[in-house]
Design a protein that fits this description.
Number of strands: 15
Number of helices: 10
Distance between the termini: 43 Å
Strand order of the largest sheet: 4-3-5-12-6
């Protein structure tokens, strides 16, 4: 029956009668808006909400527990693994849309996975054992052949990826790297009242805020963006800090959110960038991703990740790093490593050839270690999730 369906039938099966807007996911979430490209066939698979129906009912084309694929003339299928959060599905939808535009004959199927970080929404990440809380299940899916590509927030991806996988071969244009201070009244950092309580579980954000405002107090705050905003509105804290890129992607930016300059809050490695991970042996996936690559973003992120890798730092270490490639072959790299209370820190900068991004990051890390940075790096803990 699916082979006889027309594009608008599948859109109606997803609860819409237009070729744009939000479409329901099998688990009740929302999948990113897919831009309609005039064509006689859809550019990629559509996420469908199975709601029953007989064999002649268009809704029966929706596969159970996943995303259906309708393609009148079957082409090669690229399976993308994603988390189920609204931000993750937005990012995956963006990648799927741009792949569809670049490769009209490529079909894309989206598969949702639940990660360790999704299952435990209460424990601060810095207190969870191991690393990669939002990526491990997706990496296992890649290694087990259940998916061909995983879409991550790059800042969630550990700098050491499993053998047989790679990330960073193609990095789309990076979004705004800054953090936003969020308060009900839209206050800037310097305007927060004395002793204000900030909701954040991030050692980086805490240490950098304490370096600027030692009077601040903190309370742990975890959950997705909407959850944290809700806790702020409930009065659990006076302010919270969220990445501007995520707020912008979700359409949540408003007057409550004040971007903090990077000299006050230096972002985490890869913040604002997408991490596209795939099996190293799959050259066809690498080639499919090539049109999405933005060289300056890729080079900046490569330098940042090389620095973190050489330091051996994880999410427990208060560390910010930001690379800037100018598009003319030069790369600048800034790093800020702090003690948890913000009272001690090392801040350094370097520049070099963008084509040697890994070397620029590694050499700056070596300079930090020579300055005694090891004393500020949180020791790794045993990974109990393997």
């Amino acid at each position: 029956a699916a082979g006889q369906l027309k594009p608008h039938d599948l859109y109606r099966a997803c609860g819409r009668d237009r070729l744009d807007g939000w479409h329901g996911s099998p688990k009740g979430g929302r999948v990113a808006p897919y831009r309609h490209v005039p064509s006689t066939r859809p550019r990629f698979a559509l996420p469908c909400h199975p709601r029953g129906g007989g064999a002649a009912d268009p809704r029966s084309a929706c596969g159970e527990g996943g995303f259906s694929l309708w393609w009148p003339r079957m082409g090669q299928v690229l399976r993308i693994g994603t988390r189920g959060s609204r931000l993750a599905t937005w990012q995956t939808g963006w990648v799927a849309s741009h792949l569809g535009e670049a490769h009209p004959d490529l079909a894309v199927r989206v598969i949702e996975f639940r990660t360790t970080g999704d299952r435990d929404r209460a424990t601060p990440l810095a207190r969870l054992p191991g690393t990669g809380f939002f990526v491990k299940e997706l990496e296992r899916a890649l290694l087990d052949g259940q998916a061909d590509l995983a879409v991550h927030s790059m800042k969630d991806v550990p700098t050491q990826v499993p053998d047989g996988l790679e990330v960073g071969a193609a990095v789309p244009a990076r979004a705004d790297v800054r953090d936003c201070l969020v308060t009900p009244a839209g206050l800037a950092l310097e305007d927060l009242p004395q002793g204000a309580v900030v909701g954040s579980s991030s050692p980086r954000r805490r240490a950098m805020l304490l370096a600027a405002r030692p009077d601040l107090g903190f309370v742990d705050l975890r959950g997705n963006v909407e959850t944290r905003l809700g806790k702020l509105e409930s009065g659990l804290c006076d302010a919270t800090v969220l990445a501007r890129a995520g707020l912008e992607r979700l359409g949540l930016l408003d007057e409550r959110m004040m971007p903090v300059p990077t000299d006050r809050l230096l972002p985490a490695a890869g913040q604002g960038a997408l991490g596209l991970e795939f099996r190293s042996e799959d050259t066809w996936v690498r080639e499919a991703l090539a049109p999405l690559d933005h060289a300056p973003s890729r080079q900046a992120v490569a330098a940042e990740r090389a620095l973190v890798r050489r330091l051996g730092a994880g999410c427990r270490t208060p560390l910010g790093v930001l690379g800037r490639a100018d598009g003319a072959g030069r790369l600048a790299l800034d790093v800020w490593l702090l003690a948890p209370d913000g009272r001690e820190s090392i801040r350094r900068s370097a520049d070099g050839a963008a084509a040697d991004a890994d070397a620029v990051g590694t050499e700056l890390a070596e300079a930090l270690l020579a300055d005694g940075a090891a004393r500020l790096i949180a020791p790794p803990t045993e990974d109990l999730h393997d």
